[in-house]
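Researcher: Quick test of sequence recovery. Tokens follow.
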């Protein structure tokens, strides 16, 4: 590849990464909205392995 092609590829890769990060941010926000709703319904996240994964990945401000 030429230098110009590599620079174009680098720019495209950067744009794709930015889009992916935006999508990931939206998914994380949605995840925590679901967790908050389940907590309000009385769900015990500490009762299962999957739930503990949620607890351990939660921000420090979130209490279980």
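Model:
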């Amino acid at each position: 590849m030429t230098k110009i092609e590599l620079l174009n590829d680098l720019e495209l890769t950067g744009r794709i990464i930015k889009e992916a990060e935006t999508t990931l941010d939206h998914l994380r926000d949605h995840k925590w909205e679901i967790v908050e709703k389940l907590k309000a319904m009385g769900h015990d996240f500490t009762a299962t392995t999957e739930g503990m994964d949620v607890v351990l990945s939660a921000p420090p401000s979130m209490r279980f």
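Residues 3-40 form the longest helix (38 residues).
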